[in-house]
Amino acid sequence: MAIRNIREYGDEVLTKKCKEVKEMTPRIKELIEDMLETMYEANGVGLAAPQVGVLKRIVVIDVTGEDPYILINPRIVESSGEQVGQEGCLSVPGKSGQVTRPDYVKAVALDVNMKPIEVEGTELLARAICHELDHLDGHLYVEKVEGPLQDVKAEDEED
Ligand code: NI
């Protein structure tokens, strides 16, 4: 396992559409392990593969710090409600901004064994799913931010 370099706002790789994962390989398993390690090391609650420079549809999310979701080829199939809150991104260090997201989302994806899984989330998990899936289509939360980006203190968590 290794910590990978997190790409930052302005890096072209963050604007690209990612490709579906067709089969699990040792290399992709290693990528996922590295993504988890990189996310935890940066105190993030989510990380998408393009943030470490890999254009594959893979995200890791852990809003509790205990049990990560690993989502391959994820897709939101249901969403409802609305939440307004502060959002940050490891690719936009030191900043946060207000973004409106659904308050509930259901996503389907594949797990590390390429078996179908379903993830339902509300509040922060719903927000994290939306945020990370946006990365897979080359979108950052800063495109959706309402009002100015704000400076955050270093000890605040970012996703
Ligand atoms: Ni992000």
- Poorly predicted regions: none
Mean pLDDT: 95
Name given to the CATH homologous superfamily:
Peptide deformylase
Query: What is the alpha-carbon Rg in Å?
Result: 14 Å
The CATH topology corresponds to Peptide Deformylase
Any guess at the CATH architecture?
A: Alpha-Beta Complex
Tell me roughly what share of residues is in helical segments. 10-25%
- Overall structural class, as computed from helix and strand content, comes to alpha+beta
- Helical stretch tally: 2
Structural shape: globular
Q: How many separate domains make up the residues? A: 1
CATH class: Alpha Beta
Biggest β-sheet strands, sense, barrel: 5 strands, antiparallel
Keywords:
159 residues; alpha+beta; 2 helices; 8 strands; Peptide Deformylase; binds nickel (II) ion; single chain; five-stranded antiparallel sheet
How does this structure look, described?
- It is a single chain.
- The protein has 159 residues and is an alpha+beta fold.
- The chain has one domain: Peptide Deformylase, CATH 3.90.45.
- The protein is 19% helix and 32% strand.
- The strands form two sheets. The protein has a five-stranded antiparallel sheet with strand order 1-2-3-6-7, sandwiched between helices. A three-stranded antiparallel sheet has the order 4-5-8.
- The chain is globular and about 45 Å long.
- The model has no long low-confidence stretch (mean pLDDT 95).
- Bound molecules: nickel (II) ion.
